[in-house]
């Protein structure tokens, strides 16, 4: 009896007792793992998956974590750069021994699913497609949650601005005030005609300097217009 399983983006034809070098698994030496992505079960009654064979699994024992053969990557830049670089790489691998092939009953075996990569937390769960949560994913989730909390502050600020804008006067009624100038006034805290009508010479000078109005307040007569608006 043999099986064709998939792990690390590759497919392997295995039998009980075979030893495989595969992409690194999130397991320790001595752990028993189960490969749930079984493409085919061979034997007296072959079964081909579509794409996986339901309720089938291949169980194995983790022997050790090893490194593959060192590969050399040499990069030479084109002329005028006069530089070159040599990099070596050894792929992280896991050595496993196939112990059993299950044509059925894998969903209820209770054996840890074989998942690639490092930093995973083992989760024992029923089901062919039971997923394992990683420590990295959990950390990312917590980080996202932490970023989401302070993000609420701008929403409150926007709500406050919206509330202020809701009770504000239409400052565009003043001579020479368009949407851009109205926005500047709102940002400076000026939202009503009553505020403008109550400006003193010091207030006018301060606003004129802050918003670079260059004497526009007096030239356009905003204070007189604002007083008329408040009377109406």
From TrEMBL:
Q: Which NCBIfam families match?
A: L21 (TIGR00061), PRK12278.1-1 (NF008915), PRK12278.1-4 (NF008916)
Ranked from the top, the taxonomy reads: Bacteria, Pseudomonadati, Pseudomonadota, Alphaproteobacteria, Rhodobacterales
- Share an example GO biological-process annotation for this protein: translation
This protein is called Large ribosomal subunit protein bL21
Looking up Gene3D superfamilies in the UniProt record yields: 5' to 3' exonuclease, C-terminal subdomain
What Pfam families does the annotation carry? HHH_5, Ribosomal_L21p
InterPro entries membership = bL21-like, bL21-like_sf, Ribosomal_bL21
GO MF annotation: an example: rRNA binding
What family classification does the UniProt entry report for this protein? Belongs to the bacterial ribosomal protein bL21 family.
- What GO CC annotations are associated with the protein? cytoplasm; ribonucleoprotein complex; ribosome
Query: What keywords are assigned to this protein?
Result: Ribonucleoprotein, Ribosomal protein, RNA-binding, rRNA-binding
Signal peptide annotation: none
Q: How does it assemble?
A: Part of the 50S ribosomal subunit. Contacts protein L20.
Q: State the function annotated in the UniProt record.
A: This protein binds to 23S rRNA in the presence of protein L20.
């Amino acid at each position: 009896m043999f099986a064709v399983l998939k792990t690390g983006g590759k497919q392997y034809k295995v039998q009980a007792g075979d030893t495989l070098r595969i992409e690194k698994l999130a397991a320790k030496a001595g752990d028993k793992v189960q490969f749930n992505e079984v493409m085919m079960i061979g034997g007296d009654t072959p079964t081909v998956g579509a794409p996986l064979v339901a309720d089938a699994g291949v169980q194995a024992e983790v022997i050790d974590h090893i490194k593959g053969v060192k590969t050399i990557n040499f990069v030479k830049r084109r002329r005028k750069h006069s530089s070159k670089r040599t990099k070596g790489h050894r792929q992280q691998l896991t050595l496993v021994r196939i112990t059993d092939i299950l044509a059925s009953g894998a969903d209820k075996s209770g054996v840890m699913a074989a998942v690639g990569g490092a930093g995973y937390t083992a989760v024992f769960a029923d089901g062919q497609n039971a997923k394992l949560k990683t420590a990295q994913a959990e950390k990312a989730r917590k980080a996202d949650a932490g970023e989401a909390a302070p993000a609420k502050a701008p929403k409150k600020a926007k709500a406050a601005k919206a509330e202020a804008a809701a009770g504000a006067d239409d400052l565009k009624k003043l001579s020479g005030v368009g949407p851009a100038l109205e926005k500047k006034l709102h940002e400076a805290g000026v939202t009503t005609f009553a505020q403008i009508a109550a400006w003193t010479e010091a207030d006018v000078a301060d606003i004129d300097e802050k918003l670079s109005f260059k004497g526009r307040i007096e030239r356009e007569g905003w204070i007189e217009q604002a007083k008329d608006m408040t009377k109406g």
